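Quick start: read one record
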Amino acid sequence: MSISTPASFATRNWASNVVYGAASVVVPGSVAELADVVRSADRVKALGSRHCFNTVADTAGVHVLSSGLPAEVSIDSERRIVRASAGLRYGDVAPKLHRQGWALANLASLPHISLAGAVATGSHGSGDAVASLASAVAGVELMTADGELRTYRRGDPHFDGVVVSLGALGIVTAIELDIIPAFEVTQTVYERLPLDAVLQDLDAVTGLGYSVSMFHTWRDPEVVDQLWVKRRTDAPGALPERVVGAVKASTKRHPLPDVSAESCTDQLGEPGEWYARLPHFKLEFTPSNGEELQSEFLVPRRNAVTAIATIRDLAQQVAPLLQVCELRTVARDDLWLSSAYGTDVLGIHFTWKPDQPGVERLLPLIERALEPLAARPHWGKLFTLDGAAERMPRLYPQWNDFVALRERLDPRGVFRNDFLARLGL
């Protein structure tokens, strides 16, 4: 096992807006070594791809780098399950699945994120009928504060509380995910959609493909800059030439205006493997570290049109700090702390310029405007923690059940940190 001071490792998150406060960093080479760390430490948190924009993964104690654990990708075709090491990235697992004729139903915009981190924070891709990445979890292998491994599978007591856990229950060492037969996808981009026309029949627009995203800079509040439609090649029918008057892009596009699309997955209706089309960006390109911040709020689908109109009303305040806003849908699930718990949702995702003081001043305005619409924040992105301990039980019906589960699995508070404390955990 490798042990070092943080200075020997990356001490910042992916966006460089968070400096971690761990006293030491360890890289266990086995589950047994991890157990020794957990049993002996007062405070422990796991780090994966560091793609969170807040301090959910921070600790004043020991940081465990999950990438040191043995890599495993094991396919059970009969059960339609893949078991994978929690520290692996989706982009590492997906090609191996595809070579065996299998796929995951969903992928996020970036394939660079780790399995455990994405699941624990409720991260997602998009699609009217496609649920979050966490919804594909069929089993979780969890090391709790006593250094023991516990396995929770779908249908077990507390399984729905364990999956999206914010790292509060223990360190996930392996995950079992549902798999489906491999499929191909085409990706088509439409440009400059009148927003009013979109809002008149939002379901028709988001239902155009397997996964649909709208990108808006809010510089012109009345026009959606781009519509990205990812469509399975075995879907019936064909895409229209126009969508509410907007035409197909003639060249490959990046979500940000005037930015090279080289790093984006292929478009222009060219068929490709599911893992090479569902993400917006290619695995072989390094994401733009330090050049952005992110926030996201997810509102029940019944409030989607009102929520988009609410952001339009704030366009003058939002646009100066914004790089791009993405609108996409996620299907409901039953996971206690999922932002899609109990309801289909619309995600309103903000990619901000790297101006944290400015973003932190703006967020309370956005949150107050969306609060009547039951907006839930993405756990891995920037949102206001002031008053969160009072808000969360209103937003998550099983919040108190999760609190009780956390107290039972971590009575020593090994996995607590300031972020969790401010949430009331």
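The chain has twelve helices and 21 strands.
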